UniProtKB/TrEMBL annotation:
Domain of life the protein comes from: Bacteria
InterPro entries, A to Z: CoA-transferase_III_domain (IPR050483), CoA-Trfase_fam_III (IPR003673), CoA-Trfase_III_dom3_sf (IPR044855), CoA-Trfase_III_dom_1_sf (IPR023606)
Key words, A-Z: Transferase
Listed GO MF terms: CoA-transferase activity
Originating species: Roseibium aquae
Keyword hit for Cytoplasm: no
SUPFAM superfamilies: CoA-transferase family III (CaiB/BaiF)
Protein name: CoA transferase
């Protein structure tokens, strides 16, 4: 990767030092990279980010063999340079300190106290670079009785309450259920990104960097949103409703003749139109179901009646008829359906980038559509240490001989150069 400072993107010219791994931090830094920042991902020589081995599936090389690059790793590491440095070695820590002197942003997700012992904590680096924005991502934050604990997405979903709201009720054979993707990690990465952008704006006015302490647990509690505030308002602990909604009815999956579909009636007018399409005007006229509040109070009576009606037509027919009447509805797609959907293609949510191992690589696109400074897909997720030589030469002025010495000592790993 011979050049990382693309002139394109709203964050072009920003240098990000990424000491994070797994998902929350890499999600944050990938978006910074999409927006034009130069992102230097520091990885352990020989091993790299833990997620490189989290497979199968693994990317196939041009001969059809597993390359060792996992789909998990590929999901959150594009638009970055991989620099392999052993921070357990004093020379390695010095290299990272020197990079931090030049960085605008540093993102890390080590256990509380780990980087302080290595001289890579905020106070130490702030003394070298007063404008540094330093974002620490942890399971439970830098303070509080749980600060020492490790945090994993599944654990956070359970402790943070979202699993108590997800899944079918006990009487329907359900159990508390996690989301099918690492949503606690992803949302933490999003909150971290918001904090970093706010800190950059503050620095543009004052010249001062700052420290950002963000945790998976705090973020999980924050995005309980309406359910969390409903509890704080009423004192009633909400239960699991399967695919139903706590305060909107009907808003659920319903069985059609061939498969389930989604009905999302958001107001009384839409319920009237649904009943017209369904040939069930008597339900719209029933005072027990006249308003949304009535339907919520009487969901146990209404929903079984609706299910008796929806099984009389195929899902496709319901969707066609209801869309024509302006009633929100839709299919329950699997991922094959999603990535073959014409809307996904039209919105650029499936992208293909060149890759040095496989030739090309399909990834999920960015949802950010910006008229003046669009996101760019400049680099595929890098192979381990692919950019070590280029970055250390370009930013720190190391010579070829110095790199060779550091490599021979095991301080750095010099991977194969990436596509540029």
């Amino acid at each position: 990767m011979s050049e990382q400072n693309s002139p394109h993107g709203p964050l072009a010219g920003l240098l990000v030092l990424d000491l994070s791994r797994i998902l929350a931090g890499p999600t944050c830094t990938q978006i910074l990279g999409d927006l034009g920042a130069e992102v230097i991902k520091i990885e352990r020589p020989m091993r790299g980010d833990d997620t490189r081995g989290w497979g199968p599936p693994f990317l196939k090389d041009t001969s059809g063999q597993d390359s060792g690059e996992s789909a998990y790793y590929l999901s959150s590491n594009r638009n970055k340079a991989s620099v392999a440095i052993d921070m357990a070695a004093p020379e390695g820590r010095t290299l990272i300190q020197r990079l931090a002197e030049k960085a605008d942003v540093l993102v890390e997700n080590f256990k509380v106290g780990d980087l302080k012992r290595r001289g890579l904590d905020y106070d130490t680096l702030k003394a070298r670079n007063g404008g540094l924005i330093y974002c620490s991502i942890s399971g439970f934050g830098q303070t509080g009785p749980y600060a020492h604990r490790a945090g994993y997405d599944f654990l956070i979903q359970g402790m943070g309450g979202i699993m108590s709201l997800t899944g079918f009720p006990d009487e329907d054979g359900g159990t508390p259920t996690k989301a099918g993707v690492g949503i606690a990690d992803v949302m933490c990465g999003m909150y971290a990104l918001s904090g970093i952008l706010a800190a950059l704006h503050h620095r543009s006015r004052t010249g001062n960097g700052q420290y950002i302490d963000i945790s998976l647990f705090d973020c999980q509690v924050a995005w309980l949103i309406n359910q969390g505030v409903a509890y704080l308002t009423s004192g009633d602990v909400p239960g699991r409703l399967g695919n139903g909604h706590p305060t909107i009815v009907p808003y659920d999956t319903f069985p059609a003749r061939d498969k389930n579909f989604i009905l999302a009636v958001g107001n009384d007018g839409q319920f009237q139109r649904f009943c017209d399409v369904a040939g069930a005007r008597h339900l719209a006229a029933d005072p027990s179901f006249a308003t949304n509040a009535d339907r919520v109070r009487n969901r146990q009576a209404l929903v079984p009646l609706l299910r008796q009606i929806t099984v009389t037509r195929d899902a496709g027919q319901w969707i066609c008829d209801l869309e024509a009447a302006g009633v929100p509805c839709g299919p329950v797609n699997d991922l094959a359906d999603v990535f073959s959907d014409p809307q996904v293609a039209a919105r650029g949510m499936r992208i293909t980038v060149p890759h040095p191992v496989s030739g090309s690589l399909d990834l999920i696109g960015s949802p950010l559509n910006m008229s003046e400074t669009p996101v760019t897909y400049r680099f595929a997720p890098p192979t381990l240490g692919a950019d070590t030589g280029d970055i250390l030469k370009r930013h720190l002025g190391l010579s070829g001989d110095e790199l060779a010495h550091l490599s021979a000592e095991g301080v750095v790993g010099l991977g194969s150069p990436a596509l540029s």
